[in-house]
Write a structure and sequence with these properties.
Layout (H helix, E strand, L loop, with lengths): L1 H33 L9 H14 L14 H14 L3 H24 L4 H13 L1 H6 L5 H22 L2 H17 L3 H18 L4 H29 L3 H11 L6 H18 L1 H15 L3 H7 L24 H19 L14 H25 L4 H12 L5 E4 L2 H7 L12 H6 L4 H10 L2 E7 L14 H11 E9 L2 E8 L7
Parallel strand pairs: 1-2
Antiparallel strand pairs: 2-4, 3-4
């Protein structure tokens, strides 16, 4: 009885220490992620989304009044948040920070189903320390939204696999449908779950019928929700399909199939080398999962989904693989947990030594990963600039509230509270590269609307939007003929030429 009492007390103490450790990690990273949240405002992708959400919050309709390539749930979530907390940068970034911390918590609970508490805590810290998470987890972009719901879907999938009931798998499909309505890449995480179920079907002959039923239970709600939503928007907004799906498919169509494959393979190799400190340690655990370890298999089978980028012609960026980081973090922690056991250490903590400095050696291995990441994160967390708001005040001083401003960077419109044209709402690199926006189409909008100011980036280092227009020379010549160059202002590495109509008063 005394022994049972002691065991119960030990379990309670273990639960308390785990809760304390997780709470401490959340508190520390919460303070870091919220620190200097509005210090750096230069991000053209985020700027487009801020502007679009602002216009939607003012009553305009996406795909009809505001050109956008985003899926609707992200836009309406942002518009609702903006209506509740105001059209300002910091409140808009608070939401993704909360989702980032929430994703880290899900990573812990997901890892805890497979690993001891200390290893699960390590996976949580690895996720939060990763430079891509630190960067995009503090920006108002759809990436962290879909990663949050995809990770939640993966957690529900792990629970459904243990329980085995149809309703649990249906819930998985619903969660992944929500994730996909934030960003289409969520389908890759669902695909990883499909790989896992496919391998299960091949290996476990006696349960093949159950595996098929579970797969159908997961996919049918997913297809139903996604299909109905897409159908409603395509019927309501004729431009929805071309804007949301067509733009990305048209980007890079000039490449041959071989060039596309080579580009995708190069992208994956460069990513692996850039983040070898997490990818390499994750491989042994991933191999165990591929070889049949059921506890790690569902994370291991997420990794092959990255091969989808081999067939995408569009330009590829490291943030597109953000969805893999929850699984990579858990696989990393699983490998390190095995190393810990091989070293004979009972704990990650140096306060509980097992002799001969083995815990300290283990911490040194972790430090090889954490220290470079921490230095990179510190640079991102502390950077700041004032040029954005200075230019926004310049725009406000030289235009009236009803004047349209066509800008390379829509965050300037957002901060200055000035509308742009329909196409100007997402004047991004991808849209320009797809040919959806041309200099001629922009000139037509300028002529048709009350565009009193045009802002063009002419920096050799940063200009990649208007400067990449197929007929940029003609568009630039039009500006020289019909507008007056007011000033050239710096914004980080950007050099912004500000043009006003000759009939527009310059202000003070």
């Amino acid at each position: 009885m005394i022994q049972g009492f002691s065991n119960g007390s030990a379990r309670k103490a273990g639960v308390f220490s785990t809760v304390f450790a997780v709470s401490l990690v959340m508190l520390v990273f919460g303070l870091l992620y919220f620190y200097n949240l509005g210090g750096w405002r230069i991000n053209d992708d985020e700027g487009s989304f801020l502007y679009q959400v602002w216009r939607i919050s003012e009553g305009e309709r996406p795909y009809q009044d505001v050109f956008t390539t985003r899926w609707p749930l992200f836009l309406y979530t942002g518009a609702g948040w903006m209506q509740s907390f105001g059209a300002a940068l910091v409140p808009m970034r608070v939401l993704p920070v909360c989702l980032t911390l929430g994703t880290a918590l899900i990573v812990f609970f997901l890892a805890r189903q497979t690993l001891p508490a200390e290893a699960a805590l390590l996976g949580m810290v690895v996720f939060l320390l990763h430079p891509l998470v630190c960067q995009f987890g503090r920006l108002f972009q759809p990436d962290i939204f879909y990663v949050f719901f995809s990770t939640l879907g993966l957690y529900q999938f792990a629970r459904a696999y243990r329980k085995g009931n149809t309703l649990s798998y249906a819930m998985v499909g619903l969660i992944f449908a929500i994730a996909t309505l934030y960003k289409l890449l969520a389908v890759l995480v669902l695909g990883g779950c499909g790989f896992f179920l496919g391998v299960t079907w091949l290996r476990e002959r006696e349960s093949r019928r159950k595996t098929v039923l579970r797969t159908l239970a997961m996919l049918l709600p997913y297809a139903l929700v996604l299909g109905l939503t897409a159908s409603v928007f395509m019927r309501s907004f004729p431009s929805f399909r071309a804007s949301v799906i067509g733009v990305n498919l048209d980007w890079g169509q000039e490449l041959t199939r071989t060039q596309t494959v080579l580009k995708g393979l190069a992208f994956l190799v460069v990513y692996f080398l850039a983040f070898a400190s997490i990818c390499l340690p994750a491989l042994p655990a991933a191999w165990r999962g591929w070889s049949g370890d059921p506890k790690l298999a569902m994370f291991s089978w997420q990794l092959p989904t990255a091969l989808a980028f081999v067939v995408l012609s569009r330009e590829l960026y490291p943030r597109l693989l953000l969805y893999l980081l929850p699984s990579l973090s858990i696989l990393f922690a699983a490998t390190l947990n095995t190393v810990r056991l091989l070293l004979g250490s009972r704990s990650f903590s140096p306060a509980l030594p097992d002799g001969e400095g083995k815990p300290m050696l283990f911490l040194a291995i972790i430090g090889v990963v954490f220290i470079p990441w921490a230095m990179s994160d510190a640079q991102m967390l502390t950077r700041s600039e004032r040029d954005t708001m200075a230019i926004a005040r310049c725009i406000q001083a030289r235009t009236s509230p009803d004047t349209h401003v066509l800008s390379d960077y829509q965050e300037l419109n957002f901060h200055a509270r000035r509308s742009t044209t329909y196409l100007g709402a997402e004047l991004s690199r991808g849209v320009v590269a797809s040919g959806r926006i041309t200099g001629a189409s922009m000139i037509a909008e300028i002529e048709a609307g009350d565009v009193g100011m045009v802002i063009v980036d002419v920096s050799d280092r940063t200009a990649h939007q208007m400067a990449n227009l197929q007929d940029y020379e003609g568009f630039y010549a039009y500006l020289q003929q019909h507008f007056v160059l007011l000033d050239t202002l710096p914004r980080g590495e950007q050099r912004l030429e500000i043009y006003v109509r000759s009939s527009l008063p310059f202000g003070d």
